[in-house]
Amino acid sequence: MNLQDSTIVEGSQFEHFLILQDPEGEQKILLDNKSYVLGRSPENDILLRSQSVSREHATLTSIVVPAPLLQLFRLSDGTLEKGKSTNGVQFNGELRDSWILMNGDEIVFSSNSKAVYRIVPEPPYANGKVDVFLEGLHDLASNQSKAGNYTEAEKCLDQILVINQKLYGESDPKVANCLIDLAVLSYSQNLFSKTENLFLQAIAIRKSALGDDHPEVAIAMLDLAAIYKTQALYDKAESMVLQALEIKQKVLGLEHPEIAASLVDLAALYYSQKRYQEVKNLYEQSIKIYRRSLEASHPSVVSVQKKLVSLKKKLRPKWLSWNVLVPASFVLLTGVVVYTILAPKTDITCVKVLPNGSTQSISGDECRQISK
To answer: What is the pTM of this model?
Structure first.
C-alpha cells in the first residue's frame, strides 16, 4: 500500500469525525477521504451552512503516519486556488493558518459556525499521553525536512512549540528544546539571523530553568559557537566557547578529559584565525589533562599529539625549514668551490737562510722549488 495515496489506513481501528455546528444544526461527518474543502459553496466537500463563512473557507488534508498514530488531519485556512478565507480559522481560541488536529480540538470558522474534531475510540495520546502525539509530529517534521519541505516541517515544529508552551509554560526546558529544533531547521535553510535568535532564546530559558552552570546551557552555547564559526564570527564564537568551558570546569573540575576535549575545540577556533601560538599552548594543556586519566596510546592523546607535531612545524622559523636550508647550503657550497677555482693566486714570499746565518728573501717560484 502506498501510504501517500491512501485515504483511510487499512486495518485501523480508529474513525475520525468532524462534528459541525452551524445555524441549521449539527452535522457529524466521517472523514474517510484524503482531502476536503469546507465552505458555504454548495460545490464543497463539506458544506458550512452559514453566510458568515467564505465560499471556500478551509482545507482538510489527511496525513498517513507510522504507528501508533496511523493517521492525522491538517486543517488549513483557505485553499491553494482561492487563498485565505475572509475571517480566518481559530483553533482552540487562537487564530492560525493551519493546525494538525488533536482529538477534542475546537475549531471556529465564524461567530455562528464551529466544529469539534473527534477520534473513536480514543487515540494513543489520550489520557495525558500527549508525548505520543508530539513524537509523531516530530517524526513528521524530520521526514519533511529531509525531503526539503521546510515550510511543512516548520509548521509541525511550531505546533510542538505551542503545545509545550501551553502544557508547561514558556520558560520550561522542553520549550528550549523546541526552539533549538526550530533553530536547526532555520540553519539548514541558511537563515542565520533567525537561527541565532532562536538559540539565544533557548539558552536564556535553560539558564532560567536549570541554572547558569547547567551542562545543557553549555551544550547549547557550543552548538551556537559552531554556527558562529561557520559564519566567521570568531569573537562571538570565542565568547560562547569560553563560557561553555567555564561551566564545564565548574561542573567537572579542571582535570576531566571533557575539559581537554573542550580545549581542543577552542584550539580549532583559534587555528581558523591563525593564532598558532595559542593553539600550541592549548594542545599542550589538553595533552597534560588527558595523560592524567588516559593511556598514552589512547586515540584522544595520539590525535592531539599529531596535531601538536604538525603545528610545531608550522611555527618553525622559515630559515630553519628544509626548503630553505637545503638551497642555502647548496649555494654556500657552490660559492666555496667557485672561489677556490677562480680566486686570483697571489705570489708567496719565502725567506732563505744563508750559510753565514743571515736571511735572504727569495721569489715564490724558488720557494716552491725548495719545498719540493
So the answer is: 0.80
